[in-house]
């Protein structure tokens, strides 16, 4: 069982930056690939980025590539999402997820989400 807790969301102006964190419980964090998803108001949840077990490989949605960076610290059981050059369309609830496979469409564990609002 893995519990995920996101933090770092908030209100930021367009062009600004935020770093989200996702802290995982348990001693098997390094055996899970991690990902970030987001859900904007009135829209379906969408994939943002994923990172492999060791952190050596990552994939990004085209909408965030070049602006967002996913990373992980297995010693701290934490995955991060550095978000730069934020746009109003990045406004959403951001969720982290853990999955056994990489890459994968199926994730076993989800956090509760953290809100990000980007003002124009």
Question: What's the arrangement of secondary structure elements?
Answer:
Layout: E1 4-7, E2 10-13, E3 18-24, E4 33-39, E5 46-51, E6 58-60, E7 68-73, E8 78-83, E9 92-99, E10 109-110, E11 114-119
Parallel strand pairs: 2-11
Antiparallel strand pairs: 1-3, 3-8, 4-5, 4-9, 5-6, 7-8, 9-10, 9-11
Quickly list its features:
mainly beta; 7-stranded mixed sheet; globular; 120 residues; 4-stranded antiparallel sheet; 49% strand
Describe this structure in words.
This protein has strands at 4-7, 10-13, 18-24, 33-39, 46-51, 58-60, 68-73, 78-83, 92-99, 109-110, 114-119. It has 120 residues and is mostly beta strands. The strands form two sheets. Strands 2, 4, 5, 6, 9, 10 and 11 form a seven-stranded mixed sheet that branches. It has a four-stranded antiparallel sheet with strand order 1-3-8-7, with no helix packed on it. The relative contact order is 0.32.
Question: In whole angstroms, how far apart are the ends?
Answer: 40 Å
As a percent range, the share of helical residues equals: under 10%
The helix count comes to 0
| Low-pLDDT residue spans | none
Largest sheet: 7 strands, mixed
Name the overall outline. globular
Computed Rg: 13 Å
Which sequence of SSEs, written as H and E, runs from N to C? EEEEEEEEEEE
Strand content: over 45%
Count of beta strands: 11
Structural class: mainly beta
